[in-house]
Amino acid sequence: MLELLFLLLPVAAAYGWFMGRNSVRSEERKEQQQFSKKYAAGLNLLLSDEPDKAVDLFVELLDVDSDTLETHWTLGTLFRRRGEVERAIKIHQNLINRSNITEYDRLNAMFELGKDYLSAGIYDRAEQMFSRLQNHKLFRTASRHYLLELFQATHDWDKAIKVALRLNRDDHIEAVVGQLYCELSLTEQSVSKQIKYCKKALKYDKRCVRASILLGQIYAGRDQLREAIHSYEYVLEQDKQFIRDVLQPLKACYMSLQDEAGYIEFLNRCVAANAGTSAVIELSEYLFENQGGDAAERFIRSAMEQHATMRGFHQLMDFHIRAADVGNARESLRMLQKMVAEHIKQRPSYACRQCGFSGQTLYWQCPSCKTWGSTKPIKGLDGE
Fold first, then answer.
1. Is 352 annotated as a binding residue?
2. Residue 198, annotated as binding a ligand
3. Residue 125's closest CA among 104, 110, 137, 139?
4. Low-confidence spans in the chain with pLDDT less than 50
C-alpha cells in the first residue's frame, strides 16, 4: 500500500502542476483580455479626437518597472510643462506608492512631486517635500534652490535668507542675499531695523546698489543729510550705471544743506568716470546758468562726441532753442526737439542683462526670468 502511495506521488505532483499552470494561464488570459479591452478603448478615444483621455488610459496600462519608469518621468514632466499639474501629481504619487522601485527612484518621484506642487501654487506641500529631501545628499542642493524659489514667491524673506545662506557661497548667492535683506528692510516699521537690514545687505554684497539707495532714502527722511549723501554717492563706486537714479535725491540733499559746490564737485567726478548722460546734462545746466550758453553747448558737444545719446542731443537742441531768435528756425528746432522727446519717451530705460526684458521701470528682480539684480539702465544711443 505504501509503495502504491509513493508511486502515485509523482502523478499527484504532475497533476497539481498541470492544474496550476492552467489556472495561471486562465488568469493571464483574463488579464490579456482586460488589457486588450482597455487598449481598444484607448485607440477609440484617440480616433474620437479625445487624446487627453486616451493618455490617461494608456498610463493606467503601464506597469511601473525598470522598462517603463522612464516613460512615467517623461509623461510627468510633459504634463507639468503643459500646465496639467493634476495629472503630473497623479503620476508621481503613484510612483512613490510603488514597492517595486528603488529608493533613489522614490526620492526622485518626491522631488518631481515637489516641483508639481510648486508649479500648482500648493506651497505648503511643496515645502514639506523639499524640506524632507534636504536630508538626502543627492537632492540637497537642488531642493534648497527650489525652497529659495518658494520662499521668494510667498515673500517669506526670513526663510529665504536662511536657505540662501546654506547654499554654496558663490558670488551670485551673495548678491541674492543682499537683495533679500533689502526686501526684508521694506517690510519693517522700525527705522533702526530698516537700516540694520540694509547694512547686512551691503555686508553680503558690497555692490548692492539697492541697499545704498534705500539707506539714502531712510537717512534723508530723518534729515541725516550727510549720511544720505554718503550713501547716494557710494553708488558711483558700486555701479556707475545707476548714477541716473540717485542724482535728483542727491541734489535735493545738497540744496537743503546749501552746498551747491559739493553737488557740482560730485557731478564732475561722475563725468570724469563716464557715468552716463544724466550727469552730463545736469552739469551742462549748471554751466548754462553760470557761464552762459556757449560754455554749456561746448561742454555737451564735447561729451556727445565721445558718447552720443538721444538725451544728450535733446539737451543740445534745448540750448540752441534758447539761443535762437524768435522765428521759423526756432519753431523748427522746437518741432525737432519734440520728435526726439517722443522717441525717448517710447524707448525703454532699463533692460535685464539675463533675458533681455525691458521697460521704463527699474525692477530689482526681473519679472521675466526672476533673476535678482540683472536689470540695469540701458547704455548706448537710446540710454545713458
1. yes
2. no
3. 110
4. 1-19, 24, 28, 31-51, 54, 58, 61-62, 64
